[in-house]
User: What shape does this take?
Amino acid sequence: MPPIIEISGLRKTYSRAFRQPHHALDGLDLEVAEGQVHGFLGPNGSGKTTTLRALLGLIRVDGGTMRIFGQTVPRQRPQVVGRIGAVVESPQFFKHHSGRLTLQLLAESAGVPKARVEEVLEQVGLRDAAKGAVRGYSLGMRQRLAVAQALLKQPRLLILDEPANGLDPAGIHHMRELLQWLAHSQGVTVVVSSHLLSEVQQLCDAMTIVSRGRRIVDGKVADIIAGHSGTSLSVRFPDAASLPEAVEALTTADATVTAAVDRERLVVQGAPEAAWVTRTLADAGIYLSELTTETKNLEMVFLELTGTAPVPGETVQIGGSVVPPAAAPVGAPAPVAVEAGSGEAEGAER
Ligand SMILES: Nc1ncnc2c1ncn2[C@@H]1O[C@H](COP(=O)(O)OP(=O)(O)OP(=O)(O)O)[C@@H](O)[C@H]1O
Assistant: This one.
C-alpha cells in the first residue's frame, strides 16, 4: 500500500539580513503509512513546522516533491483537501463565541451536519465546557477546540503540530487515547510533530526523527530504540592520568570498541562484556576504581541522533546541532485548526 504522505528532497531556504541564508529544510524525506500514529520528532528549529506548513500549502518550498494520498501537492491539492484535518499555528477563534457556537458556525460553512459538533465536543472532552465563551478557555481547552475543529469533516489524515502543547497530564492522556483510537479503530492516519520524547514513545507507532532540516532516522518506534540502544560502560580510575592509556589499551585490544574520555571518566561502547574491560585494563597494568553499566533510553538515542547531547561547559544553540553520523539513516502558543490548502500564506520572516 503506498504511503499516505510521501515527501522527497524537500528544500526551504530563508534569507536573513546580514547573515548566510538559512536552510530550514535541507532535502527532507518523509513517508507516513496509512492508519498509524506517526511522530515527527526533532529538536527546536529542526524544520518540523516548516514541513507541515509546506504540506498544507501555507508556504512555498524551493525544491522537492510532496504527495498526499498519492496526489502531488500543491498542484493537486483540491483533490485531497477535503480528507485532511490539521492543527498548525496560533488560534484565531472569536473570543466571545462559545466553543459550541464556534464549531456550529464552522460546521455550517463546511456543510457538516450539526450533530457532528456534539460528537467532536464529546471526543475532545469539551462537552461540559462547550457553552462557555472561548475567551475564558485555557491554552489546553483551546487546543482541544482546535482539534475538534480539525475533526469536524471526519478527515482521513489528521496533522497536528505539537498536540500536547498546553495540555495537563490528564489532557495528554486523553489526547493520546483519542489519537490512537482514531488511527487504530477508525483507520485515520495521524501525524503529530513533537519534541516530547516520552509522548512520542507512548503515542506513536512509527516516527521520523529530523535534525537540521533532514531526516535522520525513521521506522517503528520500538525498532528505532532497539536499533540504537545498547549499553555503555562508565569507567573511573584512581588517577585521571590513566585515561589516555586506558583508551589506547581498549581500542588496541579490539578495534570495534570505542572509548571516549568524558571529564574524569571513560565511556566505553561495543565491549563484549564488562569483565573484558576489567581484564584488558589489568593486562595493561591499569587498575580501575569504578565500573558502571548505563543503558540508553529514547532520550539518549534522540540526543545522540540529533547531535544535541549536552557537552560539558557548552550550551547547545538552537539550530546548531551537529551533523549526524553517516551511518544513521535508515530508510506554541495554542494552535488553531488550519483549513488545509487555504492558500499560499507565507509566514512573516522571523
Ligand atoms: N518565516 C521564517 N523566516 C525565517 N526563518 C524561519 C521562518 N520560519 C522558520 N524559520 C527557521 O527555520 C528553522 C526551522 O523552523 P521550524 O519552525 O520548522 O522548526 P521546528 O522543528 O518546528 O521547531 P520547534 O520545535 O521549535 O517548533 C528555524 O531555524 C526557524 O528559525
Observations:
- Residues 14, 22, 24, 42, 44-50, 195, 319, 347, 349-350 surround adenosine-5'-triphosphate (CB under 6 Å).
- Confidence is low (pLDDT under 50) at residues 321-350.
